[in-house]
Each structure stands twice: as structure tokens, then as C-alpha cells.
Amino acid sequence: MDSAKERRSAIAAAVADIRDIEKRDGVNRASLEKIKARLIQLAARTELFSAADFPPPAPGGNRHSCLYRLSEDADHRFALYANSARGGHGTPAHNHTTWAVIVGVTGEELNKFYERADEGGVREKGRDVVRQGTGVAFMPEDLHSIHIEAPLLNFHMYGLGLEQLHRREFYKEQERRWDVFPPHSDIREARELVT
Fold first, then answer.
1. I need a surface site. Which of 24, 32, 43, 82 has the fewest CB within 10 A?
2. Strand (E) positions, the chain?
3. pTM of the predicted model, to two decimals?
4. What is the pLDDT of residues 140-191, one digit of tens each?
5. Computed from CA positions of residues 109, 110, 115, 120, in that sequence, does the dihedral angle turn out positive or negative?
């Protein structure tokens, strides 16, 4: 089997298992741990997910990472992306408004976790590094930020596709206020057609 077909098959099997987990167990922290474990199994297939297949943006541009859509159901559920980054960037504290799981393929991504502070901002409550063999999982209201220093490739999976998430909040620390992310506009289609 060629690598494209093998990748397509591995993605389809993982997403089918994840659909089953959510259908059977619902959306809760325990089910997200099972989803994370299944994505870690997929991420272990590093020969199917290389920077050559999913290159980061070229140096010198405004973008520091590319999102490649690997799978998404017709109703926009169970959206799986490969995030390929060249490093040197991060995000503000934000939520997803849907469940989310991030697991490492190559490289490292620092995740900082937050809670809303009484005075209206955020307070850090922990951190974890996502790398090969590890991941993090979030309920819709959970807050985190990501920090990427060097090139990486990881998986981001959401209960609903990013273009459908119109109320994702992020904290503008310098302005000390919350705002809403615009819908994500630069997702590269990487779903492979069945031949």
C-alpha cells in the first residue's frame, strides 16, 4: 500500500474509533482521555505524517503555522487537522466552544492552562508540553494558550470544525478585555480523495 493510501486508511480508522467513543461515552473528561489515547496511536505513525507532506509556511511571511484538514464529517463534526509550525509564535489564552484534543507528532508545544480571574482576566493554573506520545484535552469552556519555539507537527481535533466556531473567546492581555476570534480563514485542504 502506498503511503497516501495508508495515511488515508489510518486517519479513517482513528476518526471512526473517535466517533464511537463520543457516541458511547458522551463528551466528558474521561471520554476525551480515550480520544487523546486514540490520537496518540495515530500520531505514532510518524512515517505517514512528515514535514515534507505537511510543510510549515515559508520563513519571512506573516504566518507561523499552517493547518491542514485531514478529516471532517459532512456535518462539520469530528474535524482533524495537522498543525505544521516553524516556531517562534504563540496564542493568547482562549477557549474552543467545542471539545478539543491536541497530540504531538514531532517537536514540542507548550500549553498553558488558565481559569478566569475574579477581576476579569485570566490566572495560569498549570502547563504541559505536548510532544510525541503525549497530548492535552479540553472541554468547550476550558482556557489555554500555545507556545511554539521550534518546528513541529501535531494533531488538533475538534468536535466541530474551526470554520463553524464563531464564538471562540480570547483574552487581550494588554487591553485587559475579552474578544472573539474571527472564523479561521487559512485551512489547507488535505483530505485525500478515494481513488
1. 24
2. 65-71, 77-85, 89-90, 100-106, 109-116, 122-130, 135-138, 143-148, 152-160, 169-172, 177-180, 187-189
3. 0.94
4. 999 999 999 999 999 999 999 999 999 999 999 989 899 998 877 779 999 8
5. negative
Exposure of 99 in the CB half-sphere (CA atoms within 13 A):
19
Q: How far apart are the first and last CA of the chain?
A: 13
Q: How far is CA 149 from CA 14, 41, 108, 112, in A?
A: 29, 25, 8, 14
Please report the domains of the chain, with CATH numbers, ordered by start residue.
Answer: 3-189 (2.60.120.10)
Taking every pair of C-alpha atoms in the chain, what is the biggest distance, in angstroms?
57
CA distance 17 to 113: 27
Which residues, in sequence order, are bridge partners of residue 158? Answer: 79, 100
